[in-house]
Input
Amino acid sequence: MNTSALSVSHLSRPSVLWASGLGLGFLPKAPGTWGSIGAVLIWWFFLAELSWLIQLAICSGYFLSGWWASHQVCNDFAIADAPQIVADEVVGMWLACLLLPKVWWLIFLAFVLFRVLDIVKPGPIGWLDKNIKSSLGVMLDDVVAGVSGGCVLYFSFLLLQRSGYVPLT
Output
């Protein structure tokens, strides 16, 4: 199928369903934000209590399957990237939360920081976005944004917690 019009009607295709974060990418206005919100909810209710190693394995599996699905969608619809593809936001958001405790305000900060990094694309995030034009590039800039945001919050949290300034509620 060589059409550049990716639409909700294509959700019956497994690659479109997966790449769009089970359809979240088709929600109106700011599909990346919807994908990130969906990722936070999945993390909060299903992944947060798992060890970081299991979470990392799940992130790796979703990265690989999201890369595959994005590749399929980009090839099938002759597009480089589409706003409906939010598998990258899902894996990036999960990576941002990976080492953080399940504390609502900290996860909210992870969400905000990840979205800012994903939108502004500073440093290597922007370089990846501009220079790797493939389904791998679609995924990688969000992976780096998620890891960067997660590391900033994790080490800030540790520092503040050891100083006695961080409440856990």
